[in-house]
Amino acid sequence: MKKFNMILSIMMAMMISFLAGIYAAPVIQKNVFGKPAAAEEATGTAGVKETGTNAGASDTNSGSAKSEQNSADAKQKQGDSNSAKVVTGGEIGEPLTFNYSINSADGVKLTWEAKNLTGKTINYYTVVISTFNPVGDPSYDQMSDESTFKLKVVGPVKPDETLLLFDLFTYQGALHTIKIDKILLEYDDGTTETIDYGYETSDSSGL
């Protein structure tokens, strides 16, 4: 009887050990080899999505910053370009009177009139003049030996009023033609402008 009980005890112990081994096997496998494959795939997918979202946000922010910078640069260039312009909306009109006279001492007196069509009030204007002999070469002042002259006149000359020259400005015996090359304008708002004029006269019937 004792022998039978011992054999039965051994068999029960073996069965208990066998059952305990079957139950413990999945737990041991999980602890030794880490997370199940499904869990790893889920974690990996989540990581990729998060990285992609951050990268997209970074690229968007970078693109937005570059766009804003380019826009600012364009506005600055446009502002610089506009500030350099002097807009008058007009010019100096063609001569109303343009002739000269020569006295007995070869003194040359010029008479010239033209309208202010700039749309602005002119405080000062300087008329740049060249003189020529009958064959078209420069003719020279007897004292200064110059053939180009600048005559400055004090205004003001308001819009549509007349600019006037009536000056004895040179002494020349061989003068034939007077040409007004440029007119330098100084406006009452502090801006300046140079106008290429280009009118000439050989009319010596002036006063």
- Indicate the CATH class of the largest domain: Mainly Beta
What is the global morphology? Answer: rod-shaped
End-to-end CA span: 165 Å
Count of individual beta strands: 7
Question: N-to-C SSE series?
Answer: HHEEEEEEE
The helicity comes to 25-40%
Judged by helices, strands and strand pairing, the structural class is alpha+beta
Q: Number of folding domains?
A: 2
SSE order and pairing:
Elements: H1 2-33, H2 37-83, E1 97-102, E2 107-115, E3 122-132, E4 148-157, E5 162-171, E6 177-187, E7 192-201
Antiparallel strand pairs: 1-2, 2-5, 3-4, 3-6, 6-7
Question: How would you describe what is shown here?
Answer:
It is a single chain. This protein has 207 residues and is of the alpha+beta class. It folds into two domains: 2-83; 97-201, Immunoglobulin-like, CATH 2.60.40. Helices cover 38% and strands 32% of the residues. It has helices at 2-33, 37-83; strands at residues 97-102, 107-115, 122-132, 148-157, 162-171, 177-187, 192-201. The strands form two sheets. It has a four-stranded antiparallel β-sheet with strand order 4-3-6-7, with no helix packed on it. The protein has a three-stranded antiparallel β-sheet with strand order 1-2-5, with no helix packed on it. The longest helix is centred in the first third of the chain and has 47 residues, at 37-83. Residues 23-58 and 74-89 have low confidence and may be disordered.
